Amino acid sequence: MSDGRHTAIPLREFPDPALAYTVDGDDARVTAANDAFERQFEQELVGGRVSTIFDRFNSCDTTGDREPVSHLVRGDRIGIRLDGYGNRGPFFARVIPSDDDTGYLVFSDLRECPDEGYSPGVDQVSSVISHDLRNPLDVAKAHLRAAEETGDPEHFESVADAHDRMEQIIRDVLTLTRDEAVVQPTEEVAIETAARDAWESIDTEQVELTVSESLPTVTADSDRLQRLFENVFRNSVEHGVSTDETGSEQTTESPANGHPGARGEQTGESATVVVHPLEGGFYVADDGPGIPPAKRDVVFTPGYSTRSGGTGLGLAIVDRIVEAHGWNLTLTAADDGGARFEIIF
After folding, report:
1. Is the model's pTM score more than 0.85?
2. Which residues form a coiled coil (predicted)?
């Protein structure tokens, strides 16, 4: 069942059909497969090409912009929907690449997913997962590199925290697809603390945060409130600061969610995001040119994005979290013309 190649994660740890592969030229070769895979596909494939698996299906659609094997060779982390292979499937296959031209392909039988007919499309679900998992995954990678370079075991605590965060996000997405409640507002949460914790989880090198010390506390789901802040902050940071191919800073001309570049690119100053109290709530504002009035409703629509490569899911997630808490969200202009998100409890 295996060619003896050492794998970082034992295949037996995957409950779904799974195989390990290594890139070989313009294709990939199967190096190992677990029992669940061999039971499902009823054939020994170790040593064979991964492309022959895809060829068995009449329908093969990826969440990327290339053929499945091309993504494997490039090391892209994508999803593949496979259908039309006898009475098997349909499947959603996840590509999990490693850093050394190896990786895993894990197959989930979509017939075993409850309420499939009422779930979001494969592309949207995979986009939600990739969007929210990016930050803790980057944090984990950075601390692993630091641990390798310094030998300091404290970095592993940060890796463990990032993994816990990713696990929670995955549970949230599964809950969303099954149309169940996703928030548990059962504790008093300090808005200031949630905002600062969220800021620590994203790359904010070119943007400064100012948080008022007089922010209120609120009965909320602390984890979802932090995710709310993460997505609002990310909207300002990613769509306010960009780089060209040389690495120099540039103004973002066609950002996601209709949010133009921040003032930092135009004046040479750092862009700023503020979190201040509001009667009955709080607001988050930035000092960019803002979001045009005509776009202020559509930016919360899942999938809406005007930035190349954007998922258009960040503000949609914010809207869902606010609604699930029973709060009210208003998008307006900040005093200096930037975007201002007002949340009233």
Report:
1. no
2. none
Burial 63-79 (b: 16+ CB within 10 A, else e): bbeeebbebbbeebbbb
Take residue 145 and report the two structure tokens written for it: 């590199």
User: What pLDDT sits at residue 127?
Assistant: 55
H or E element: which one contains 209? strand 207-211
Name every residue whose Cβ is closer than 8 Å to that of residue 123 and which is 6 or more positions away in sequence.
63
Structure tokens at 199: 């800021």
Beta-bridge partners for 246:
none
Q: How far apart are the first and last CA of the chain?
A: 57
3-state secondary structure of 12: helix
Q: What phi and psi values does residue 78 have, to the nearest 5 degrees?
A: -135, 175
| Residue 136 CA, distance from chain mean position | 9
| pLDDT value at 123 more than 90 | no
List pLDDT tens digits, range 190-247. Answer: 999 999 999 988 767 778 999 999 999 999 999 889 989 998 998 888 766 443 332 3
Q: How confident is the model at residue 10 (pLDDT cuts 50, 70, 90)?
A: low
Q: What are the beta bridge partners of residue 217?
A: 190
The residue whose two tokens read 């494997």 is: 72
